[in-house]
Amino acid sequence: xxxxxVGCGYVGLQLGAELTQQGHEVWGMRRTxxxxxxxxxxxxxxxxxxxxxxxxxxxxxxxxxxVVNCVSASGGDVSDYRRIYLQGTRHLxxxxxxxxxxxxxxxxxxxxxxxxxGSTVNETSPTTPEVExxxxxxxxxxxxxxxxxxxxxxxxxxxxxxxxxxxGYWFKRFFQGDMVIKGKGERIMNMVHRDDAAxxxxxxxxxxxxxxxxxxxxxxxxxxxxxxxxxxxxxGRPLPPFGSVEAAASFKRGTTNKRVSNWRLREELNxxxxxxxxREGLQSLEA
Length: 287
What we know:
Number of helices: 10
Radius of gyration: 19 Å
Low-confidence stretches: 246-250
Distance between the termini: 34 Å
CATH superfamily: NAD(P)-binding Rossmann-like Domain
Number of domains: 1
Helix content: 25-40%
């Protein structure tokens, strides 16, 4: 297949390397040429373009069989989210509408689930987040799902918090010594290793049903206190202090408390996690 990875960064680079090893032709789109050498070393053809620039996109060939949109707003505000996720996706739809496209995978986020009661959520659960950035992600999903109902080959993946080599918000804060556990540490954390995020995307390209949503989260969501107790025991460092909800850090996509189910990904797409929980993922980072 001819594959384009839009926003070929942390996850996209790993995905592209896997797809090239499988024999696919892979292009990686970035806004600048800064990562050209890194992409090419992975067997990915570098393509410089910006999905917020529709005229620029329309000048490019759209001869791809599979397209993955895994762009990131890089910590931007609500206006950046609208411009990059919502408007950027609309631009991609316009650009690709007359091409030979067989599958379009969009990587959303489990932050679209706004539940705060510790309940288990799946792909049919309500997506009514309170935070504006997460609402933009919901709107972007809706645009794609509406187009899928008309025949556009869109699939939505909702990714949990990504960690892996040189990345992991909770790991970094623990080892920096500036972590404060919220309340009693009962809030549930949903995570996925970068390699499993890439593996799930590759599986969705090959097997996912058009117009379907899949949660991409490992097998074992865990509470904050369980997570940091494991890190403390393994590293010999003290458990972070407990603090009020107000003292804890706020997040751009909102602070929620829910357990995200990956049943559909495992059972329907038969995906087996390389790192079923953060424990295996942490061990891989230490190797």
